[in-house]
Prior knowledge:
Shape: elongated
Strand content: 15-25%
Oligomer: single chain
Distance between the termini: 56 Å
Radius of gyration: 20 Å
Structural class: alpha/beta
Helix content: 40-55%
Amino acid sequence: MIGIVVSGHINFASGMQSAVKAIAGEQEQMMFIDFVESMSTDELEVQLRQAAKEVDSGEGVLFLADIPGGSPSNRALSIMMDTDNVELIGGANLPMIANAAFEREDVSVKELVDILLEIGGSCIQDMRKQLEAVMAEPEPDLECEDGL
């Protein structure tokens, strides 16, 4: 099973942990690392490296970070650059993180990245446009031909 490390600013990771637990239950080989104000980026990287080691069963590790180019993403990128079978998605959202728990068996890390990018992108929607599309649909004809 692919190991997952979720990281982000302040309480992003711990908030995602609570949500994932509610949606998918307690997860093995999945860790959540908050980058809090009292941490240096060097301390963050140490925690990310340790988490990656703890979740890795030999099938790879996927980092899911909140903001592309933010410190959690940049430090995970450093790990990806010097560690085999590690991938990183920046800009992760809850649908991606929750589905990572369900989709991470019987795929490669790169395949999981593709799956999660598709899920994450498809879940970003303009809800006004969705509502307007539903409201514009014609009413179904509820009359039966035989009059019943």
